[in-house]
Design a protein that fits this description.
- The protein is of the alpha/beta class.
- Strands 1-6-5-4-2-3 form a six-stranded mixed sheet, with helices on both faces.
- The protein is built from eleven helices and six strands.
- It has a single domain, classed as Rossmann fold (3-Layer(aba) Sandwich), CATH 3.40.50.
C-alpha cells in the first residue's frame, strides 16, 4: 500500500468520511446547530468543501418542517434530472412521495420557446399544479427560484418548502436572497456555490434522518 493510502472496507468509507468531517470541523472551531448538522455535514461530504459550514442557511424550524412534509408524502420537484437521479427515491416512496423534473419534457421546451421564457419558468408553473405538499429542490437554475417568487408575489402559488442551492454567476445570489427574505420555509446556501449534487444531498440527509 502506497504512503498516504489506507485500506478501508467499502461499508466503512462513509462512516470514516463523516468522522474526518467531524475532526476537521472541530479543528476549525466550527460547531453546527444540532438539528441542522446532519444536513450540512452531508453537503460537505458530497462536495469536500468546508465553506458550506459557514454559508448554509436554514429558516426557523426548517428541518422539522421539511421532514414533516416528507412524512406526509410530499413530492420533490427538481430543476435537473441529475438532482432527480441523486435523490433516494426508494426511501422517499416509503413515505408516499415521488420526484418530478419537467425540464426535459418536450411540451415544456415547446411552450418555453413560444412564450420566450426559460424551461425552468414553465417547469415551475407545471410543478405548482401538482397536488399535495411539494418541496422545490433547485440546484442549477436561479430562474426557477425567481419564477416561484414571482408566482408568490402575484398570489398565484406559495411553495411549501424551498431548497435553493443553484450554482453559478448570473442571478444566483439574488435569486437565493429572494427566499432568504421571504416567509417560505427554506434551506439555502448563500453565495455562488451549490449544484444538483448539493440539492440531492440535502433531500437525502432529510430522509436519512427520518429512519
Amino acid at each position: 500500500m502506497k504512503k498516504g493510502i489506507e485500506f478501508v472496507l467499502p461499508g466503512e468509507i462513509e462512516k470514516r468520511s463523516f468522522a474526518i468531517i467531524e475532526e476537521e470541523l472541530s479543528a476549525r472551531g466550527i460547531t453546527l446547530a444540532k438539528e441542522e448538522a446532519p444536513v450540512t455535514k452531508r453537503v460537505i461530504h458530497t462536495t469536500a468543501d468546508f465553506s458550506y459550514a459557514e454559508t448554509m442557511r436554514y429558516s426557523q424550524n426548517a428541518i422539522r418542517i421539511a421532514r414533516g412534509l416528507l412524512a406526509q408524502g410530499a413530492n420533490v420537484v427538481t430543476d435537473t434530472n441529475m438532482a432527480k437521479s441523486g435523490i433516494n427515491k426508494k426511501l422517499l416512496a416509503e413515505y408516499g412521495g415521488d420526484v418530478f423534473c419537467f425540464m426535459a419534457d418536450e411540451k415544456v421546451a415547446k411552450e418555453a420557446r413560444e412564450r420566450g421564457v426559460t424551461r425552468a419558468t414553465v417547469s415551475m408553473e407545471r410543478a405548482a399544479k401538482l397536488s399535495g405538499p411539494t418541496i422545490f429542490t433547485i440546484g442549477n437554475a436561479p430562474t426557477a427560484l425567481i419564477s416561484l417568487y414571482e408566482m408568490m408575489e402575484k398570489e398565484e402559488f406559495r411553495p411549501d418548502f424551498v431548497i435553493g442551492v443553484p450554482v453559478g454567476f448570473v442571478n444566483v445570489v439574488g435569486a437565493k436572497e429572494l427566499f432568504l427574505n421571504s416567509n417560505v420555509p427554506y434551506i439555502i446556501n448563500e453565495g455562488r456555490k451549490g449544484g444538483s449534487n448539493v440539492a440531492a444531498a440535502i433531500v437525502n440527509a432529510l430522509l436519512y434522518g427520518m429512519r
